[in-house]
Amino acid sequence: MLLNSDTQLNQKSYYEASVVRPDVLPRVQDTVAVDVLVVGAGFAGLSAAIELAQRGYQVAVLEADRVCSGASGRNGGQAIAGFASGQEPFEHQLGKAQARLAWDLSLQSLDLIDQRIRDFGIACDWVKGYLHVADSPRKARALQAEMAVMARDYDFAVDLALGSDVQRHIGSARYHASAFDTTSGHLHPLKYGLGLARAAQSLGVRIFEHSAVLRLDRGQPLVAHTASGQVQARFGVLAGNYALPEFGPQVAPDITARIMPVGTYIIGTAPLDAALCQQLIPSNAAVCDNNFILDYFRFSADHRMLFGGRVSYTTRTPPNLQQVMTRRMVQIFPQLQGVPVDFLWGGFVDISMNRAPDFGRLGSNLYYLQGFSGHGVALTGLAGQLVAQAIAGQ
Predict the structure, then answer these.
(1) Contacting residues for 92 by C-beta, under 8 A, at least 6 apart
(2) What's the pTM value of the predicted model, to 2 decimals?
(3) Start and end residues for every CATH 3.50.50.60 domain found in the chain
(4) Which tens digits make up the pLDDT trace of 29-47?
């Protein structure tokens, strides 16, 4: 049910409409033997495959649908420093020194995007700049306090604006505070994901589409069964996130209960005049508020407002979605009243219970990467790097 909902909405995605996908890759046939099996051809799976191939491993990636057909290919495109949980869970469970290490790793994940784009020549409309905003005095105080802690304990400085000064960064009277960060940024996620797939293939990774894993036999070797064949491997990486139990409920029931699928939705307007874009977001940054149910938005390379928000905890798409999303957008930017909406799409992301990433190992040779909780554009690259290092014994 989740995947049907995803597929129906994704067909109307701005991202899908603005790329030309390569030909469909073959299904896995008969028996394929490799060093490492990766389940899921989204950002996490492809990043792991690249890192493993660069270390000399033979890698096969099994994708249930098409490359980046899930959350990786239709998200808000915001690559943000840090974690959805904030630093508190890390400080509470690990102490301040290890919390600082986790924070520094999140910054490295942004550097990794720069490196991937440069090394593999990925054209994905990558723009630096992120604006965190607060829409009430109470939330403004919370944002100000959070930024003070980040500067004091993590040496992370931002351009903090309060009151009317916020309009230096955003042409809206809605916000009481903003924090501008030049480390984070935004990109076209499907262009980036397809670029990662090309990079993986150039390193010898074999990617199989329409090859859902229906059963996984653990042991040595691991054996993943699909409808048309199987893959044997010394190591496995599960990067299917919320979609994993949809096809193979018994593949990894010990981890799927640890995350929750949550629907989120985006509208894309008709192209806007460049001068209006400059008026609304002068830095062309990605923007997100600090509400529990977020509004997040940015401009595409062709000057469309891509405005995201709303949530759903069921398989049903919320009613009157385009009207509701458009109304939220116009409340922030009255200047967009009457602008046509060309695209409406959405789908599910994996949210962990405490909104911190959930990476780990099952037995001696099966790893999992999940729980990115809305920060997956950046953190998936880090996850792929960490799991490759673990498999290589580093």
Answers:
(1) none
(2) 0.96
(3) 2-75+191-258+354-391
(4) 999 999 999 999 999 999 9
